[in-house]
Amino acid sequence: MLYLCCTLLTLLAPCGSQAGDPVQEEYRVKAAFLYNFARFTNWPANETGTFHLCILGINPFDGAVDSLRDKTVHDQPLSIVHITSAMEAAQCQLLYISPSLAGQLNEIIPVLGRFPALTVSDIDGFIGRGGIIGFLVIDDRIRFEINITAASEAGLSISSKLLSLATTVKSGR
Fold first, then answer.
1. Which string of DSSP letters, residue by residue, matches 10-56?
2. How far apart are CA 154 and CA 134, in angstroms?
C-alpha cells in the first residue's frame, strides 16, 4: 500500500512539463491515473478474462494510453478499446468519457447505470451528475474526486487508500 501512495503522490505532481506540450503531459499523467484507478477498484467477476479500458468520444490522450497496453489489471491483460456509444460500455470495466460528450452526459450516465463500469471523466461537475471519478486540475496539479454512491450502485468497491487521496469523496445523490 505504501507503493500505491508513493505512485499516486508522484502522479499528483504538476501537470505541466519543462519540455513538450503541457496538454500531452496532462493526459500522460491522467493515463497513469486511469491505470491506478483500475488497480485499486474491485469489480464483480469478469468472465472475459481481459480488462477493458474504454474511451467514449474524441480521444484526448493522443497516444498516452498506449503505454498501458502491456500491463495487467487484477491478473488480466489490459485492452484499450475506443467505443462510439454508451451501449457498447457493457464490455468495459473502466470507461473514460471524453469532454467532447459533455453536452450528452445526461443521456449517457443513465445507460451506464446498467453496467459495472468505473466511469472517469474531466467533464466539469462529473461526479455530481452520476459519474464515479472526476479529474480536476488544481494549482496546475491533477487531482480527482470520487462519488462512492455511484461506485456502489455500479457494484464497484474502491480501495480506502485511493479514497484517502481524493480531494472530495461524495456520498449520496
1. HHTSBS--SSS-HHHHHHHHHHHHHHHHHHTEE-S--TTSSEEEEEE
2. 16
Q: What does pTM read for this prediction?
A: 0.87
By the 10 Å C-beta count (0-12 exposed, 13-18 middle, 19+ buried), 173 is classed as exposed
Using one digit for the tens of pLDDT, what is the confidence trace for 107-166? 999 999 888 999 999 999 999 999 999 999 999 899 999 999 999 999 999 999 999 999
What DSSP string describes 42-103?
A: E-S--TTSSEEEEEESS-TTTTGGGGGTT-EETTEEEEEEEESSGGGGGG-SEEEE-GGGGG
Report DSSP state, residue 127.
G
Buried b (16+ CB within 10 A) or exposed e, 38-49: bbbbebeeeeee
* Structural domain harbouring 138: 2-170
The amino acid sitting at 166 is A
**CATH number, domain at 76?**
3.40.50.2300
Into how many domains does the chain fold? 1
